[in-house]
């Protein structure tokens, strides 16, 4: 999946992945996609809830050992 913007949130603990995600999403136009990489295990639940509350679409999640990848389309 091709993203319009990439956010490296590896090594950041809650709430920083959400804070950085919000800032990155503010820079995108509606319909554009943000790809996020994080190592925080809680980010899966946190980002899923944040996406729903913000009216965005969680396009895809991938897990690879301790790396979580998210693709979010701005709503």
TrEMBL record:
Pfam families found in the cross-reference section: TusA
The UPF0033 domain, residue ranges: 7-31
InterPro entries: TusA-like, TusA-like_sf
Name by which UniProt lists this protein: UPF0033 protein YrkI
Annotated family: Belongs to the sulfur carrier protein TusA family.
């Amino acid at each position: 999946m091709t993203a319009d913007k990439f956010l490296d949130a590896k090594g950041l603990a809650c709430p920083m992945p959400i804070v950085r995600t919000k800032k990155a999403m503010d820079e995108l136009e509606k319909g554009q996609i943000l790809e996020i990489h994080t190592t925080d295990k809680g980010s899966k639940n946190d980002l899923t809830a944040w996406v729903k509350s913000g009216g965005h679409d969680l396009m895809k999640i991938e897990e690879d050992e301790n790396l979580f990848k998210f693709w979010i389309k701005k709503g």
